[in-house]
Amino acid sequence: MTAEEAPAREDEQAGGPGAGRGRLGPPPWLALFFLLPALLFLGVYVVYPILFSVYRSLWDAAGAEFVGLDNYVRMFTRADTFTALRNNVIWIAVAPAVVTAAGLIFAVLTERIRWATAFRIVVFMPMAISFLASGVIFRIVYEQDPDRGLANAAITTVQDTIAPTGAYPGAGPRDGAPLEEAPGGGYRLADPVAPGDAVALPLVGVSADNLPADAQDAVEPRAGRGEVAGTVWMDFTRGGGGREGAVDPGETGLPALRVEAVRDGDAVAATATGADGTFALTGLEDGRYTLRLSGSNFSDPYNGVTWLGPTLITPAIIAAYLWVWAGFAMVLIAAGLSAIPRESLEAARVDGATEWQVFRRVTVPLLSPVLMVVFVTLMIYVLKIFDLVFVIAPGSVRADANVLALEMWQVSFGASDQGLGSALAVFLLILVVPAMVFQIRRFRREER
Amino acid sequence: MSAHAEPAASAQEGAAPPGPGGEGAPHRSPAARLVARAGSGLVQVLLILIALFWMVPTLGLLFSSLRSSADNAASGWWTVFTEPARITLRNYANLLDNPDFVASFANTVLITVPSTLIIVVVAALAAYAFAWLEFPGRDWLFLGVVGLLVVPIQVALVPISRLYGGTPLYGSIPAVVLFHVGFGLPFGIFLLRNFFASIPRDLLEAARMDGGTEPTVFRRVILPLGGPAIASLGIFQFLWVWNDLLVALVFAAETSRPMTVALQSEMRQFGANIDVIASGAFLSMIVPLLVFFAFQRYFVQGVMAGAVK
């Protein structure tokens, strides 16, 4: 049936018998009654704006002067648009693929799990919350201070386990002390030592507040047979007085400081100082050693990653986007999975395929139409991403995180350049046209 | 994949497993079964970790909203586990005492409820015409609607603000409502039309035979049978509009701004007032979360159908 012919026929034969499919159909004008409100809304809010945006993009900022394609030229020669465009490209290249992959993994992993529904609800839930709320959530996650931001708290915890923060950042020898900076960090005794030696290792630069609670008054170093002994202490007498380089009454030992004996560049013995700052390196063969206060004693605390800085801001926002959208991909792909005929999977397994082969050779190809739909849908959404960037990026790095949709808003309503803003909007529209075509074709195929 | 067929069912029941190790296990050797079971245990542990990973950010917001400003500045929200006594509802009490916040909450409701209702009614009428009435150019017109699904909202911001400019509509709640209706329609028509078209022809013919006029057929046959799809559309649009920031940012005035815009303006001093922002964000999430948990099935349906928007 062609839509153009049908109505004429119906008009003549309305209610008449034997007129084919439209036999009992109402007159076509009745359709208008049903369609009118929708057409009005669509006309005013979607169709007219498309036409007007195209027209408006050819006029200057105030809309007073016709400038032809100037706005488009300007759009592609501004640094701001370039950043926005570059970020959009990153978004398009990364976000849909990552989200689809996560959705696929989650859908497959949960396929045979009893509590899959619970898992899916948890992952799907962020879809119900606004990007604004999600943005707030991730601002808290990404706080720089490891004491407050979860991401950095986790990272610094791991980092501290692998390479603990030094107990005495900022500490060092006084001028004229027998210590010098060691290659690779830390300090070493300028003169070599041999078993039987006792050395005094004075340090300064530790504030009284940062001294460990268990620190006791320092004790003069005294070496036993076959060992190198010494004292590492805070060479500073409270209230003044005291001699430099000597253990005076009231000066405190530095506990838990790592001391190493180095021979030919390798640490052959190591120990830690006690509460009074004394240590003893035992089991050393005769010979000469370099005594080193290892660099790990003095390393600065690790402060975590600057998520919201200019370099990481876009990946950080994409991670938040993944958190929101993975559930969407998962639910669609799970539906696709459950529609795959069991027999094809069984047949492959009977033929001796491993689970991985089944997944790659059977599941994924059969699933590809669904994967494609998810991927294209995400691309459309990603092109229009606005809120997350707007909310997560702090004002200072918003320019670095910029995307086209955000730029369009800023240009049109911040800088009041509606000519350029319209050009940006038209550009966005052009970018989604392929998706539009994909959609229409898919729809027509399904209708058949 | 048809837009409305069994998505909800598969999201729910599709989860129902054929049983652990139900991959034709009987023929396997005991060793192979042991490996499979260990693998499944590993998968479960992995999934638990992922689920935790997904919940923790939201919990962070919740706990931040339950701590005083000073506590939030001094330490991470996870310290509530070691110091549960410091939890306070004061932030929420403050928000509910704040007339600006209450007004923005009311605005959100005043924008969301009418938008949703109007979209549902207008889309249902049009969807019926596209599914069951014959008129010239119907198929092309509907393809046009499908095409409009992907139009970015940015295209309409400047033209509509110009259209509103100078009229009392600008900055009013109806201005925001009407915009949402206009932009929600392509999706609404698309979703409902596909569902309506799957209603058995016999039912309509019978009703027409009995002398039912089209409005009667629409009311007596289509609306009751289309219930699930209408529910999906309603819930989806409700969440969509409730969560909107951009449209309100452009078209709402100070007095008509919804919660999202109010919160967004607080964000400028993020850090100084995490407590206010966190509790506000959590309050703004409560309604969507309730809707999500109550009508999850329909929400999934809407999302599946909207996989093209």
TrEMBL record, chain A:
CDD domains: TM_PBP2. Residues 1-12 have a biased composition (Basic and acidic residues). It is a multi-pass membrane protein. It is found in: Cell membrane. Keywords: Cell membrane, Membrane, Transmembrane, Transmembrane helix, Transport. One of its GO terms (biological process) is transmembrane transport. The chain crosses the membrane at residues 29-51, 89-109, 121-142, 320-341, 362-383, 419-438. Its main location: membrane. Residues 85-441 form the ABC transmembrane type-1 domain. The keyword Protease does not apply. One of its GO terms (cellular component) is plasma membrane. Coiled coil: none annotated. Residues 1-20 are annotated as: Disordered. Belongs to the binding-protein-dependent transport system permease family. This is Alpha-glucoside transport system permease protein. It comes from Streptomonospora salina.
Automatic annotation (TrEMBL), chain B:
Residues 1-30 are annotated as: Disordered. It is found in: Cell membrane. Residues 105-295 form the ABC transmembrane type-1 domain. Gene3D superfamilies: MetI-like. It is a multi-pass membrane protein. The chain crosses the membrane at residues 34-56, 109-133, 140-161, 173-196, 217-242, 276-295. Residues 1-16 have a biased composition (Low complexity). Its main location: membrane. This is Alpha-glucoside transport system permease protein.
